[in-house]
Write a structure and sequence with these properties.
Layout lengths: L4 E9 L4 H14 L3 E8 L7 E9 L11 E6 L2 H7 L3 E9 L13 E4 L2 H9 L5 H13 L12 H20 L1
Parallel strand pairs: 1-4, 4-5, 5-6
Antiparallel strand pairs: 1-3, 2-3
Helix pairs in contact: 1-4, 3-4, 4-5
Length: 175
Amino acid sequence: MQKDRINLQFCGFGGQGLVLSAAVFGTAAVHAGLNGVQTQSYGSEARGGECQAELILSEGAINSPSADKVDILVAMSQPALDRYLNRLNSKGILILDPRFVVRPTRDDVQILEVPVTRIATEEIGQQITANMLMLGFLRQATGMFSESGKTWEGPCNRTQRLAGGLINATTRISS
């Protein structure tokens, strides 16, 4: 992770709202005063095909619409994880939905299982809300944007916040 930049990727299958998730998170970042670039790709199927969205957030200028590696990978399907896991930086953070993804054996990244599809289905009654639950988890866990809409806590605290905040949030959301 660069000091003033973070690269995120959301991956899964069409119909899970991953492109919308990246757009919403990116819009929140821009409103918080960051620069953002969001790209996406998906198969020709209306639902069920492979889908991914990449989001680059920075306090400075962004000179490329894509990144070679990502700092945070959100995986909501096994085929997508299999395809994009190699893009995750060493010491990066993998957030996965255990309903659709098997925990990989990669030991150089932090892996967090967040049962958003189960919560969306059993507690909210609408599986389609799983993507917004994941965004809520990501926002709360990383502290990237304050509730007042200000930017993240600052580049010197961000890496620490990502690691510590996600661990604490995983404990809260899993119980």
